[in-house]
Amino acid sequence: MYIIEGNIGVGKSTFLRLVSEQLSDVNAVFEPLNKWQDTVYGKGLLTNFYEDPKRWAYTFELLTMICRVQDHRVEQEKEELTLVERSIYSGYYCFAYNSHEQGFLTELEWNMYQQWCSRIMLCKCLPPQGFIYLRVQPEIAFERIKKRNRHAEKTISLTYLKQIHARHEALLVKKEGVLPQLKRVPVLVLDCNQEFERNPAQMHKHIHAIRSFLMQTGTTLTPYQHQHTHSVSP
Length: 234
Fold this sequence. Notes:
Blueprint: E1 2-6, H1 12-22, E2 27-29, H2 33-36, E3 39-40, E4 43-44, H3 45-51, H4 53-75, E5 82-85, H5 88-101, H6 107-123, E6 130-135, H7 138-148, H8 158-174, H9 180-183, E7 187-191, H10 200-216
Parallel strand pairs: 1-5, 1-6, 2-5, 6-7
Antiparallel strand pairs: 3-4
Helix pairs in contact: 3-4, 4-5, 4-6, 5-6, 5-8, 7-8
């Protein structure tokens, strides 16, 4: 199992879809956004979090942790090559950590979340074979968010994206304060500042880098047939 990570707005779902279309070995597992957008008092929980993070941060982080743990435990038992969008690790080290730093979580909520998360990561979830980090400048991510114009994301600020970017860098590049077993997990960093969805040449470079990374980390792949696709996001 490999995990695709990256900031909001980088295009992880689109990227994962394109990879799975061009690499026949890949089983793609997408982030369960539909579960987080179910109606709560007339609004989606994700929308509630962005609009009132101090009220909804703990509820939202707990729900996403449950979803990610469920997916992680299912996928870690499979023998097939699986690429999972986001993980319990970015949920903890990036989003929940930032919520605590910004005062969205009380000390009690943060301590409770930490106790649950650390026990699960140590006892229930095996580390992935590798991380694939889609790295993008926060300013570019902000423009992509505005372009895709999702209702739940209308209140996301550039400041928030910069905070989440810094946490991804700490987790995946500097590996600051992470569990020892995570420090040993290899990370492929892809520069995703350039458009890749409608740029087959750029996407081909990413696919080539991913294939090399997967093979270097012990995964056997079938021969790659380069496809000139022009996919459009749903």
